[in-house]
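Supplementary notes (optional reading)

For those who missed the lab, this is the record we used. Protein: protein-glutamine gamma-glutamyltransferase. Length: 730 residues.
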Amino acid sequence: MSQPETRSPKRQVSFRGRSNVPVASSNAEGEDAPEFEPFGLMPRGPPPLAEFLDIKEVDMLSGPDEMNKREHHTELYSNPLLIVRRGQEFQIKVTFNRAYEPSRDQFLLEFVIGNSPQTSKGTYIPVFPDPERVGLWRGRVLDSTDRTVTVGITAAPDCIVGRFRLYVAVLTPYGIRRTRRDPKRELYVLFNPWASDDAVFLNDDGERGEYIMNESGIVFHGEASDISARPWNFGQFEYGVLDACLYVMDQAQMPITNRGDPIKVARKASAVLNSRDDDGVLVGNWSGDYTYGVAPTSWTGSVEILLTYHSSRQPVCYAQCWVYAAVFNTFLRCLGIPSRVVTNFYSAHDNDGNLKTDIIVDEEGKVDRFRTKDSIWNYHCWNECYMSRPDLPPGFGGWQVVDATPQETSDGLYRCGPASVQAIKHGQICFPFDAPFIFAEVNSDVIFYKRNKNGTLEAVKVNSSHVGRIVLTKEIGGDQPSDITSQYKFPEGTAEERTVTAKAEEYGLCRQKVNYPESDVQVEVLAQEVRVGADFQLTLEFKNQSNHRRTIKAFVNGYVVFYTGVTSDEVKYKTLNVTLDPWQTERVIVDVDASDYMNKLVEQSNLHFMVTGRVDEGNQIISAMRVITLHTPKLTIEVTGSPRVSEETFCAVEFTNPFPFNLENVYLRMDGPGLMSTKFKQYSLISPNSSVMWSQPFTPRRAGPTKLMVTLDCLALRHVYGQVDVNVEL
């Protein structure tokens, strides 16, 4: 039985002898405002007399119906504190003991973050309500009525992102009078894609609505010709998620001063979202044994994962690429960085930069499984985040690839990106970060080698269009896939594509040159949709594209594979002899019985069929590959009645076991943004052809359209899920 990933205790590194104070890297801790007098040196003395200005109350105007949250698009956050975006004015009301008189009274607001706050580092920010006194942040008096003054504050568009503490100070003849620290007077400052001066500015309302405000998403998986869509609750506005995301940066020991740069935030987060180096958020597991945690296929969303990590201070078990990408998406959107989940079908894992995946066949054309070590992921999920890239030449800003799945190290840590999508498309892989690796994921060649009797390898065939077959993300405003392949590469074989490859080779990423005879016989495995537990027929289409008769000896190999392309067990092996007249096309049927694969399936139920062989005339090698994703049964989900805010309603989930065997230790999970926290139910056994019904009450917290998601998971059946649209009324 495999054991969970082991981690050595985190080594505590002392700053003693290196600096006078430790680097401020925690947003959860902090000191009071420093002993710094922005009014100038003032004498210390007794408390001010009654006739001098004194602070009675500070109103943060933090309610969901207040202008601050509406104008800053933060009203959906389930958090009572003020949440604003940088580069945009927000308001605070200060009530004094008497009317404020600008000619004789002076006061200011002090914003503090982290330990050892300093003006020079942007961690201590005094704001005078006077447009003529320009500092890091701007302030002005918007209204003064009776004893209450409304102050407008505009945070700098490049300021630190995180949780600030607020103090209000007034000048008296006897010195400074400052409010005490109060957690209710803390506020969050986020990135602002609505502000043109912010590095994450996105100038499209539809895109901002999708890539910042949308809490529900779709993760595409399966096979390039048989794509499935899995719902996911990003839940970036749910209670506790914002604090959990800030804790992620604290856990990474990211300096507070770096947290205003989206490039540094995205790169650091890509490392700490996985647990390989730094006790990060998620433990990766592709073994199929999830005894000590939750199976990756069982999660319904990011909220449960992030809250568990924040509360336990321990990595959460377990994740695979789509879980990493989905949780990373929540992190980015929560902090205000536009982001989306991307799926690359047939994704190469190239760790040596030669842009090739090797498949070795013997002299007859049969695949040599013992010597073929490379694999191609059926699909791989990563993220794109939107930002300017002032560190790159003009034109390489916009969408950037970041990937939290631990595949290869980058500068000593398991992380990837941000890498400009434009740079990848144009072969400019000299630009940071990790562009060569991502370029190879969508551009590698599959090369077939014939192993001769003397042990030498001879390249006999290349497939340059298999890897990076299609790149998808969710469309704006809907649940359908949007094909963004053209954003990553030019069409195969075009002049632009050859130019890009040449450009990449200039920067050291070398595609291996092979000379192979052109085959005039083609073979294709036709796509089809198959249910788990069903018998099916594999259709092979042979085409003779010559004026001569052709005799083919072909081998059909079928394997159960993990979605990473790693082979598990063989389920089919068949030898075929096919004779084709000139220009003839012939279809050959291969029967595959459920008994061949059912007791060998691994999660996600993928079967990989490879047809290889040799044409007697001319000694040509033929090949074709097809991944068949077996479709799992669906859940029936229904919400009763017309859901209303703060009124209890019910969600009913029904599932019938269609298999001739028992399903044991079955877990159902239910989740929905604005509807409920994660709920789950366990069934010890579901017998063949029997049904279970789960009715779960929930009370919606806010009005509007949303989704409710459910998963079913057990050892014998993974990747069963469903969703239902819910429109909550007031």
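If you only remember one thing from this example: Confidence is low (pLDDT under 50) at residues 1-6, 41-48.
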